[in-house]
Amino acid sequence: MANDLQEKGLKLRAQLWGDQAARERHENFKGFDEDFANFVNEEVFAKIWTRPGLPIKTRSMITMAALMVLARGPELRTHMRGALNLGITPAEIKELIIHLSQYGGVPTAVEAIRAFKEVTSPD
Q1: Which of 34, 62, 83, 92 is 20 to 30 A from 55 via CA?
Q2: What is the pLDDT of residues 46-93, one digit of tens each?
């Protein structure tokens, strides 16, 4: 069963970041601690992100909102990239930032704008 969960988690993560990036991220976590890597993959992505009741795009928007108000910039950037891969538009992410500025504060929005510009700017 754990192997099924591992594949289910990696499949979901591939939707967000592409197959190679999903596997690289998982291997990176395994380099830190294999149990932690498996926990994140199986519990967070295989069990939570794939639950019925909310579409993956909604889960992505919720995740970005949480990361914004918690001031988790590096992880926010990662999930913004995933959101764009899912088809969430830059305009939708902008609206999320503006909306959350009223609940999380302007400094939170400013940091999210920095992340957004980094993620959406051409290299």
Answers
A1: 34
A2: 999 999 999 999 999 999 999 999 999 999 999 999 999 999 999 999
C-alpha to C-alpha distance for 17 and 36, rounded to whole angstroms: 20
Q: Return the closest-CA partner of residue 25 out of 71, 82, 67.
A: 82
Phi and psi of 72, rounded to 5°?
-105, 70
Give the model confidence (pLDDT) of 27-56 as tens digits: 999 999 999 999 999 999 999 999 999 999
Rounded (5°) CA angle 35-24-51: 65
Helix axes 2-17, 73-86, angle to 10 degrees: 80
Question: Does the model's pTM come out above 0.85?
Answer: yes
Q: How far apart are alpha carbons 62 and 82 in whole angstroms?
A: 13
